[in-house]
Every structure is written in structure tokens, then in C-alpha cells.
Amino acid sequence: MKRILIVEDERNFARFMELELMHQGYAVTVVGSGQEGLETATRDAWDAILLDAMLPGMHGFEVCRRIREAGLATPVIILTARYSVTDRVSGLDSGADDYLSKPFAIEELLARIRAVMRRSKRGTVEPQEAVTYRDLRLDPVIRTVSKAGVPLDLTKREYELLLVLMNHRDRVLSRDMLLDLVWGYDCEVETNVVDVYVRYLRNKIDDPAQRSYIQTVRGIGYVIRS
């Protein structure tokens, strides 16, 4: 039986999700604060975590960030009534796998849960060899990136975006393709989120006096060229 943790302070809403998920055969645990959510998420094993963004005690984005800092790859879906691009980027940048705005149909939530579980299962393939480009080195085995031997501090999504671009060197990837490859085809984010993350990456890996590692192909997308 798949185990799902719900971290939600609105009791009626949490109970609604709990009953629907139990009806679908999931084992469900509900907690109502950010601190309790973090402790429960890191103490036990879960197949997915539904995490409200606005929680008492600790913001949901911070909870997610600390879950990732603890080394856990458990799929996390952020649930929130806020749906600006900035909010979506903040949620995904904290390490969330998906972002669902309230109100939503329970059928959509169930589909998102199945999707993040599938993506998590696909992520268990054997590690790849380290890839290099110019003075960048990305090691998928230990999930590190360095530039001229100096480690770079990339978020989970920045790392995955750079890995996709480096693995598809000389191939122009459209924004839609990057969404599919990095965020998953059924993740509800808009293509301009890709532009935001490319900008984040450039700020961390580029030198102002040199050509950018990631080239923009106007009207199409991005590419790393040999």
C-alpha cells in the first residue's frame, strides 16, 4: 500500500483529501504544521508528500527545502492558493516535484500523485558517466557540478536542467521539450519558468567576459554548443 503524507493546516480540506485518498487505496497520515510535517517527512518513508505552502510555524517551501537537504528524494507536491510565476518558481526551486493551485478537482490531484510517483520510479535507473563541457564537470553519480574544479551550489531543478542540456549538446531544445524532460510532461508550469531557470543557471556558471555556456535560439529554445 502506497503511503502519502498530507501537511495541511485547514482541517476540513485535509480531511477531504484524506478520505478521497483512502478511498483510492492509499495509506494516509495528516499533520497540521510545518515543523510537524518536516519531522514526520524525515522520520518515516513516504511514497508522496502533499505539502501546503502556507503553514503555521514553518512555510511549506522551507519544509520542502529542508526535506531535500536531508537527502530525501520523496516526491513532493506543493498545494497553494497562490499561483503567480514567482510563487511557482519558489515552490519548484525549493525542490518540489509539482505545484497544484487551489481549488482543484480531486481527479487532478490523483493524476498528479500518480505522475510524480511514476517519475520517481523512472529516476531509479543506473547512474550515468560524468559529463564535461569546457571547464564544467557534472557527475550524476554524486549529483555534483564543478567549474574549473570549484564546486557550484545548484538547486535540484537547476542541476537537472543543466544535465539535460549537457546530455543533448548541439541539439536545440524548445521550452516545451525542456519542460517535459526536466519538470515532466504533466507538471502544471508555464514555459516562461524555463527562461527563469536558464537565467538562474547563467548567473551561477557564466563569466561576464566570456560567451555564455547556454545559447538562446530566438523563438525556439536553448542549446549548449560544442
TrEMBL record:
Single biological process term from Gene Ontology: regulation of DNA-templated transcription
MF terms from GO for this chain are: phosphorelay response regulator activity; transcription cis-regulatory region binding
* One GO CC term on file: protein-DNA complex
Task: Fetch the InterPro entries from UniProt.
Answer: CheY-like_superfamily, OmpR/PhoB-type_DNA-bd, Sig_transdc_resp-reg_receiver, WalR-like, WH-like_DNA-bd_sf
Alphabetized UniProt keyword annotations: DNA-binding, Phosphoprotein, Transcription, Transcription regulation, Two-component regulatory system
DNA-binding region positions on the chain: 128-226
Looking up Gene3D superfamilies in the UniProt record yields: 3.40.50.2300, 6.10.250.690, Winged helix-like DNA-binding domain superfamily/Winged helix DNA-binding domain
Pfam families reported for this sequence: Response_reg, Trans_reg_C
Response regulatory domain boundaries: 3-117
Identify the CDD domains for this entry: trans_reg_C
**Residue positions of the PTM 4-aspartylphosphate?**
52
Domain called OmpR/PhoB-type: residue spans: 128-226
Q: Could you identify this protein by its name?
A: PhoB family transcriptional regulator
